[in-house]
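=== Given protein ===
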Amino acid sequence: MALPRTLHIGGYWRGPNDMVRQMMLGLRAAGAEVCEFNTDLHREALDCDGREYDRGTFGPVWLRWEILRPRVESFNPELIVCNAGGLSFRADDARALRKSIALLGIALSDPDVFERATSRIAQNFDLFLTGAPACIPGYRARGATVDALPLATNEEFFHPVPSDPQYACEVLVIGRAHADRINPVRRICGLFDVHIHGEGWEEYGLPSRGTLYAEELLTALNSAKIAVIFSRTPAGHTIVKVAIFDFIAGGALLATDSIAEIAEYFDLDRELIAFRNTDELIAKIRFYLANPELARRVRESGRKRVLSEHLWRHAWPRIIHNIQSLKQRAACGASAQS
């Protein structure tokens, strides 16, 4: 299937390993001609209704048509992707664009931003994808055409690299210090050699080694015995994190919360480590540290599963087929009515 010429709009606040950037690179790897519009480099294109720019945390981030128009007219895209950050054209501009261009919107921070931001923009797109399937009924009740975002990774960036003694540890924790993570991390720090990378840990007496980017992140993943990802969002919702796919593809033996949704992607305790509570996390860390051969098999099986089924270059053709089918049905419906 020939993929449409695509204008991809989004920002990369986490640097080279940001999931929005990796999705864009995966779209290119799938064979699409992609024009990249990095909103971090074009803040003049963003309108937050008088608020400070907040990446869509507290409301929509509108795209200024007068700024985007030259890019759209020169590149002549068949598809425009507004990827995360609460990004959307205003309703009138979106309606005009959709007469000749397919519009795809993506939410990566649902359900935390659903009420304030994404529920207010989803109707502007031919298709809106959310990383939180629990939000789908709410979107549909507001008249949006919505589906679950297939979660994946970009193996051209996330791949195993040699380990480095300075990053060697038994347990690696990457992420912000959310309230639900403090006690589990404090407990495992008292039992294992733990490296913490992320913001906010110092105020709880837990030293952080800073934020990891690019090659440094890959080195840390391959130097740790086990990496842990907690599934709750800052607002306390449980979701499957895209970082799970990134870290496994990057070479990590991953441990994460045992939730029903993760079993849709992986065979638990054969392709990743799943835990229901902190006691079980501790027990499983001890078990896999004591059984390195089994740990190696789980690590390798998880990566094999990701590479075979969960890559952005595989997911994008399915997404595009879906939106093209929706556009064709809408066009047929309009013709029948006329």
Summary: Residues 165-309 form a domain with the Rossmann fold fold (CATH 3.40.50.2000).
